[in-house]
Amino acid sequence: MTDWLSVRRGQAPLIISIPHAGTHIPDxxxxxxxxxxxxxxxxxxHVDLLYGFAADLGAxxxxxxxxxxxxxxxxxxxxxxxxxxxxxxxxxxxxxxDGTPLYVTGREPLAAEIARRQALYFDPxxxxxxxxxxxxxxxxxxxxxFDAHSIRGRVPRLFDGELxxxxxxxxxGRSCAPELxxxxxxxxxxxxxxxxxxxKGGWITRHYGDPANGL
Length: 215
Prior knowledge:
Elements: E1 5-8, E2 14-18, H1 27-30, H2 36-39, H3 47-50, E3 60-64, H4 111-137, E4 144-147, E5 166-168, H5 178-188, E6 193-195, H6 203-208
Parallel strand pairs: 2-3, 2-4, 5-6
Antiparallel strand pairs: 1-3
């Protein structure tokens, strides 16, 4: 554990990643922003509390306290869009979900600043994931990495109408065995549930999910 990265280890074949519940923004970055409330608007508020039961299941929980405005640890580090042709936010978002600028004009993060944040916050988060995957694969033949999120139900810039209550992303089946995806959907027990709808999984889901090899 550091002052911003928390890894609570369990022995069960389950890792829960919580990449977007953080609300901390360092002072030097805060000084570049239009406002802190705007910069924190898109946080996945209370997801860490929602999954507070996970420790009792023996799950490993990995969480960052850093705001996604500082750096989004669930985006492709190359900068490539996860949803080509659709509105989204990047590795160091310059707008919120509604398209409102987050930074004072002229103070947007350039390549060197993005690389600095990646080294400080992105890389350690993913190192923690890789370490816990390796540790648990020594104990289990197969494990599950569950990436936990929430989002406002209505964000016109990102999708039409109201989002379903439960959105299960499996990268169109490439990151998750269909039997597991359907089991999760059954657990939701809500008519407003979709698998691989508007959101198919972010970088964590797409990068690590490998059901043919037990992850």
